[in-house]
Amino acid sequence: MPYQYSQFNSLLPYQQHYALYNSFTQKVIFLEPFLKDLLQAAIHEGVDQLQQFHPPLYQYLIQEEFLVPEGTDEVEKVKQLVRQVDEDESIFLLTINPTLNCNFKCWYCYETHLKQSRLTPESIDKINKLISRIAVRPKLKEFNLSFFGGEPLLYFHKQVVPIIEHFYQTCERESKRYGISFTTNGYLIDDDFIRFFDERHLRCSLQITLDGHRQHHDTVRFVHAQKGSYDQIVQNIHLLVQNGFFVRVRINYTAKNLAECYRIADDLCDIDRSLTDAYMLVDFHRVWQDQEGDLFDLLNQVLQYFRARGLKVENRYSPNNVWHSCYADKRNSAVVNYDGNVFKCTARDFAKVHREGYVNEEGELVWENNSLERRMQAKFQNPPCLKCRLLPLCNGGCSQHALEALEEGKPYCVYGGDEHEKDRVILQKIQEIAEAHALAQTQTV
User: Fold this and answer.
1) What is the structure's pLDDT at 445?
2) Is pLDDT of 155 > 80?
3) Deepest in the core among 45, 66, 231, 232, taking most CB within 10 A?
4) Residue 145 pairs with which residues in a beta bridge?
């Protein structure tokens, strides 16, 4: 059987060797320079010739799917995997915006903060009816409830508690696995919040954002001109982790604040290592309006400092967006605004003109203008993605990107078509595999 070189392979220099990485299988093989030369010659002359010159390497590349049968539609394999993940009916993610009001006014926020926006008793009733409808779906096994905003903890007891009470009681009655999460600035966390969950034997996870270290953060998120929020938020992160609440610490970095971000690790690493291993993950994201300058090397230095301090970290250069696709890509997800309007994406504003549906009086999700099906079909219509070696990792961005590109009628690339940026993603993946292997070797010694 003739074979072909996989579309999803990348061959890159790595330390004193070369690394051949496949983004679909997420496997890597390290090659000596002469084997790299042999492979490159075979790529140009026909990979099956490799069988004649180096049979063991040829067989290994077939076994590990760096070489695939000639005529294999590798993009179709990615499509099948995407459908498997995004059409999964066993899980539902329901996100609620209790309010669009916020106690901070971050300069980069895309939302319009409405002071009078909050859930009414009628809206809470409709949401609870929706929860009841979802929970009895026969294929449903896991139900996740998330609170966004605005700042979802502003009116916690009046607006959020009634929904949580109904949610967990309904899930337990229907024998469904369930989870609760918040995307919050973390300033309003207190002992009363902890007590609420303790008394019900519940836990939730939280994403809490820091805008750099103290000096930079307090110029973005402040109570008033003389009072910042950094110290209170860091204290609240300690409180949560020490009480067994999982916290994803999202660090929003810019060219101005990244050099000082390593100091955040010093403020978090005094928590017991067993607790941070179990209940904390640090996640770095560049503020989307800040794109001047190449921060890759500096970011890696900061990440290494966090790791050296015993903290787990993630960053955008290590995507796995097929297996872990955006919530908005999934059929079984919805964002319900305080006014009953329904959206899919939380990274756009919640103006009524952008809504994709609504919750009716009976608690049913009503999708308008075929919006759900248009979104589910938006992927794989962007020509550059279909030829890209990163497709199984990048997934063409999210469905929101895909929809907006279709509306504009323009091809796009998450990495701007920059092959050097794609190489960085691959090198990050290779580094993670190498580090995991080294750790495993250490643990078995």
Assistant:
1) 46
2) yes
3) 66
4) 94, 180
Is the pTM higher than 0.90?
yes
Q: Is the pLDDT of residue 369 over 50?
A: yes
The H or E element that residue 167 is part of is helix 161-173
Question: How many C-beta neighbours within 10 Å does residue 263 have?
Answer: 14
Written as six digits, the tokens of 232 are 């209170």
Is residue 110's pLDDT more than 60? Answer: no
How long, in residues, is the chain? 445
Q: Where are the domains of the chain?
A: 83-367
SS3 223: strand
Distance (Å, rounded) from C-alpha 283 to C-alpha 249?
6
The structure tokens listed for 346 are 């939380």
Number of neighbours of residue 136 by Cβ within 10 angstroms = 11
Q: For the chain, report the end-to-end CA distance as a whole number of angstroms.
A: 42
Query: What CATH code would you report for 83-367?
Result: 3.20.20.70
Going by the DSSP 8-state scheme, the letter that residue 174 receives in this structure is: T
Which sign does the torsion angle of CA 169, 189, 95, 117 carry?
positive
Give the whole-number percent of the chain exceeding pLDDT 90.
89
Which residue pairs from 32-36 have beta carbons closer than 8 angstroms and sit at least 24 positions apart in sequence?
A: 36/11
Give the pLDDT score at 437: 82
Task: Give counts: helices (H), strands (E), the chain.
Answer: 17, 18
